[in-house]
């Protein structure tokens, strides 16, 4: 009886190996995807923090905004002031974020475009300031 069972299973040896390889591959791909998405989320959160800091700094003193971005390891793409509102677009790592701040009693500053600014994202930035 034992020899019949052994004879029936001799051709089925190793059948679980392809399934195990597939499972290990899917788990590894899932781990890589989670790590990539996590790093992207961290970059976007840091960019948002830097954009908030730049917008608040620009609301107080327009000339220190780029230094605040550099201190937060970011770079300013575009800054706009319309009336009392200040808008800043900041990139950090793979993240890009936009923030706004209100400067009470501020005079309107010119629109600043930086070398990597994208006019499609910041259409408020005109070549001639409107007053």
Report on this structure.
With 131 residues, this protein is of the alpha+beta class. The chain has one domain (2-113). 46% of the residues lie in helices and 20% in strands. The chain has a 4-stranded antiparallel β-sheet with strand order 3-2-1-4, covered by helices on one side. Helix 2 runs antiparallel to helix 3 (65-71). The radius of gyration is 28 Å and the shape is rod-shaped.
Explain the layout of strands and helices.
Layout lengths: L1 H8 L6 H45 L4 H7 L3 E8 L2 E8 L2 E8 L9 E2 L18
Antiparallel strand pairs: 1-2, 1-4, 2-3
Helix pairs in contact: 2-3
Rg for CA atoms = 28 Å
Number of helices: 3
Mean pLDDT: 78
Stretches with pLDDT under 50, minimum 5 residues: 115-131
Q: For the terminal residues, how far apart are their CA atoms?
A: 98 Å
Task: Characterize the main sheet.
Answer: 4 strands, antiparallel
What percent of residues are in strands? 15-25%
Strand order across the biggest sheet? 3-2-1-4
Q: Strand-and-helix sequence, N→C?
A: HHHEEEE
Secondary-structure class: alpha+beta
Number of domains: 1
User: What is the overall shape?
Assistant: rod-shaped
In total, how many beta strands? 4
